[in-house]
User: Fold these one by one.
Assistant:
Number 1:
Amino acid sequence: MLEREHTMRKVIILALIFSTMALASSCVYRSNIAQGNLIEQEDLDQVEVGMTRNQVRFLLGTPMIDDPFHKSRWDYVYFLKIGREAATFKRWVSVEFENDLVSEIRKDQELAPDL
C-alpha cells in the first residue's frame, strides 16, 4: 500500500512537471518588429511635384524598395508589429519621377491586411 502511494505521488509530480513545461513553452516572447522607412508626416508634406531625386532622398531617405522594373518609382513602406498582434501602424508612399523630377506622390496606399 505504501509503495502504491509512493508511485502515485511520482506520477502526479511528473504530470505536473510536464503540464508546467507545456504551458511555459507556449508563452514565448515575441519582440516588436519595425520594418521599412519611418516617414514623418512633416517631411512627407514637404515633398512636392517638381523636386529632384536628391531633394526627395534628403527629406524621406533612401527608398526601402529598389524595383528594377520601375526605375521611375520609389516606394517607401513601413509597418510596426507589436508582439503577436497585427501590424498597428502601416504606411506605403510611392513617389513617381519623370525626367528625374517628381511627377506624382501617392500617399497612404493600402498594405496587405494580414501584415
Number 2:
Amino acid sequence: MSLQDFLNEVEVLKDEYEKFERGNKSAGTRARKSLQTIKKMAQDLRIQIQESKKTEA
C-alpha cells in the first residue's frame, strides 16, 4: 500500500460524496464504504511509518 493508493481512494470518496450531495442516495453508501477503506488504509500507513522509524533507529 502506498500514499498514492490512499490519495486515489480519497478522490473516489470526493466523487461519491459530490454525487450524494446532488441527491444520489446510493452514492452515500459508496461514500461510506470508501471512508471505511480510507480508515483501514490510514491505519496501515501508520503501521508502515512506525515500523520504518523502528528500523532506522
Number 3:
Amino acid sequence: MSTLKKYIPHYTVEDYMRWEGDWELIEGTPVAMSPSAGFLHQKVSGAAYTQLSTTLKRCKNCLSLYEIDWIVSDDTVVRPDIIVICDEPEGDYITKSPEIVFEIVSKQTAQKDERIKYEIYEKEGVKYYVLVYPELKVAKIFRLESYRFVKLLDASKEKIEFTLKDCSFIFDFSIIWP
C-alpha cells in the first residue's frame, strides 16, 4: 500500500449521512458536488424528467426520480440527475441499480459523468446510460450488453425505445432542447 493511501481517510455511507452540503462518495473518497445547476441544465433536465414521468404513467411498476441518492455500496453513494426504477425502494434511498440513468453533462461534471460514473453504472448493471449535453443539443445513449455499455446512438431529434423489465416506452429527444 502506498504511503499516501495509508493516511487518507476511507469514508463510508454512515459517515456520508452525517455530512452537510452536497457530496457524493466514490469508493470511500468524498467528492463535492458542483454548484447548483444553471438555467440550461435545469431546463433540459426538467423537460427530460417531465417526459419520463408522463410516459411512465402507463408502466405500473416503473417511475422516474430526480436527484435521489443511490447507495451503491458501503463506501459509494452517487446522485444521478434522473433515474428510472422499476422496483419499489426499500427506505428513503435507492439501493438497487436503476434501469435508466440520465446525467446532464456540463464542463464541471464531464470527467465524472463520462468516466467515473460511466464505470460505476456499467459495473452495477444499469441497463441504459444517457449522457445529455445541453449546449450541443445531443444525447449519447448506451445500453448494457454482456456487462459492457455499447453506444446505441447520438440523439438530437431522434426517438428511442427503451425496453425495461415490465414495459417499454418511446422517448423523444427533440422535445427536451430549449
Number 4:
Amino acid sequence: MLIDTDVLIWLTRGHEGAAQRLAKAIPLRLSVVTYIELAQDCRNKAELTRLKKGLALSHAQLLPLTPAISDRAMQLIDGFALSHGLQLGDALIAAAAIDHGLSLLTGNIKHFRPCPS
C-alpha cells in the first residue's frame, strides 16, 4: 500500500482514524513526492527533523522516481489533466502506485478517481 500525503498530514494533526489505519500499514511506503510535499510544508528545521524521525521510526520506505514512473505519470497527465484536473504530484504518486502494484491510501479519492488501479 502506498500512502498519500493527505493521510500523513491527518496523522500529524491527531486524526485517530489515520493513526489506526497507518498502524496497520507498517512499514509505510511513500513516494518521494509525498516526502517532498511534507518537507516543503515544514515551517522550520525542528519540524523537518520531527518529520524525518517519524518516518525513520515507522521504517518508511521511500519509493524513488524512475523512468517508468515518469513515463506513466506523463501518460496520466496526457489522459486526465485537461478532463479531470490531474496535477503533477498526484500523477507521480499514482504512477508510483501503479508501477509498484500497490493500492493507494488517500482521502482525496476525487484526485485519483480517473487513474487506473
